[in-house]
Amino acid sequence: MPLSLAPDAVGIGLKHQHTEALLAAPRPVDFLELHAENYMGAGGPVRETLAALAERYPLSVHGVGMSLGGAERPDPDHLARLTSLVAGLSPALVSEHLAWSRLDGDCYNDLLPVPLTEESLALVARNIDIAQQALGRRLLIENPSLYVRLEMNTLDEADFLAELVARTGCGLLLDLNNAGISAHNLGRDLDAYLAALPLEAVGEFHLAGYSLDTAVDPPLRIDDHGSPVDEALWTLYARMTRAMPAVPTLIEWDTRVPSLARWLEEVERARARRPAPARNRTRSPA
Amino acid sequence: MSPLADWQRRFIAAMHEPGIETDADLGQPAGLDVYRNNIRQGLIEALATAFPHTRTLLGPRYFAAAAGDYARAHPPADPRLMHYGHGFADFLDTLPPLEAHRYVSDVCRLERARLDVSHAAEAPALTAPQLAGHPAPEALVPAPRPATRLVACRHDVAALWRRLEAGGAALPPGEAGDRPWLAVRRDGRARLTPVAPGVRHLYGLLDGATTLGEALAIAAEAGDEAAAGEALGTLLGLGALGVPGKPSTEDIP
Fold first, then answer.
1. What is the reported pTM?
2. For chain B, domain boundaries
3. Residues of A in contact with B4 (CB under 8 A)
4. Residue B121 is nearest to which of A42, A151, A185, comparing CB atoms?
5. Measured between beta carbons, which residues in chain B are less than 8 angstroms from residue A66?
6. Chain B contact for A113, CB < 8 A?
């Protein structure tokens, strides 16, 4: 029986160094988010531990390798693996990225930028349709961290995402850190960007830290998921959750992974920054 | 070709060519460097995670350089990075500075095998009591369990492997020679064991299409009957063989 997810839930990423503590302790977080590709082996202890965690925690399956933002259709083998993983776990949330990472049979382990054109819009919408039909459920699409401004863009990112929602029925994973990074790196107006998004489609927030590449002028913000959430982002998060109190939040920390205790401090900060929890509301699996 | 596909191909070409002037429509050079660095560093880190002992033997700087060269020449074909680096040991074999250190590739192959069996599908092991209790064991058709890999080492790296596993300083390898190992996951734990050439021979014969009786007869012709029986005992003791009648081909290598 899938575990339901409270709309004001705060979760953390699933890291192998914390699994023992997460299984042993009283449930210290509301949910766990796993990178889908790390759990697509055929079996073994990693899968067995995940099955045990799935009995205790609502899960969010976060894909990083579907390459929905490319001209190619989703790799059917990879999509089948994701579908199998999702079917086995019945997670509360399933998400992917507005990005591409595969071309001509080679995979590039990064989230590469998508030109925002009418052609891309049609292809990404097609790919999301294919994925959602295979999964039999709604995907949340995450806004990207960007390091390049593409002169060929004919659409704003917020409009592009809004049109994907309208065409495919997908939801959005609003990564506030990514939004801030892209605003900084591209000289984008963050408030205008957020105002233009279809916020009613947002099904999850991501929060994370970033680093600064000062070797270039002006410095670039780098989405390294390796540091605490900065104060400006907490302020933005408080503002967004006042307007959108029923959206679960995930604190990402993928590099220089901290102790569980340190990570839970960030969870408590998130809980303190958002409005008092609404009662008797749960988010069932989409 | 669609305009998006053409743009993506030019973008990837730019990822492979640091320092050259790129088309303006790909984005600003400083930003392209971020993506380029993310791809390269991500794959170096994936290989470092997969091959920690190899990294210890080569040292972090040489390992990073070799891993970066490998990543550039061999990008992953699968977004599951747990499967990345199957050709890394062969690549190390081509590096002239490692001419006198080919045992490093043996350690690299053992690490790859350990990863493979760790993520392989589960399947019950054929045990000696099951075999002893079977009315016609010679007619069984055993096969390697999915969580089993045979590794062909070319040096005696047993003592070195034990030292690396214990976190100690590296030892010189033993003599060069034919040194087969078996990697087997059983009860959730991957174990790597050096085995005799006769064990490898019988393991190769038990391919899921040959009866146990036929395989033992062929193995006995190559050596002696007692050695073939001993090899079977080793394979059963390690849990390397699957339950007869249960195909083990669902594993994804």
1. 0.93
2. 1-80, 102-253
3. 70-71, 115, 117, 119-120, 123
4. A42
5. 79
6. yes
Count of residues in chain A: 286
Q: Do A204 and A226 contact (CB within 8 A), yes or no?
A: no
Please check the confidence at residue B200 and state whether its pLDDT lies above 80.
yes
Domains and CATH numbers, chain A: 10-280 (3.20.20.150)
Over the stretch A74-105, which tens digit does the pLDDT of each residue have?
999 999 999 999 999 999 999 999 999 999 99
C-alpha separations of A159 from A180, A275, B33, B88 in Å: 17, 28, 27, 44
Measured in whole angstroms, the distance separating CA B229 from the mean position of its chain's CA atoms is: 27
- CB contacts of B251 in chain A (<8 Å) are 42
Which tens digit of pLDDT belongs to each residue from B86-144? 999 999 999 999 999 999 999 999 999 999 999 999 999 999 999 999 999 999 999 99
Q: Which of residues 25-54 of B touch A (CB under 8 A)?
A: 25-28, 30-35, 38-39, 42-43, 46
pLDDT at A279: 44
Angle at alpha carbon of residue A186, lines to A246 and A229, rounded to 5°: 45
Size of interface A-B (CB pairs under 8 A): 139
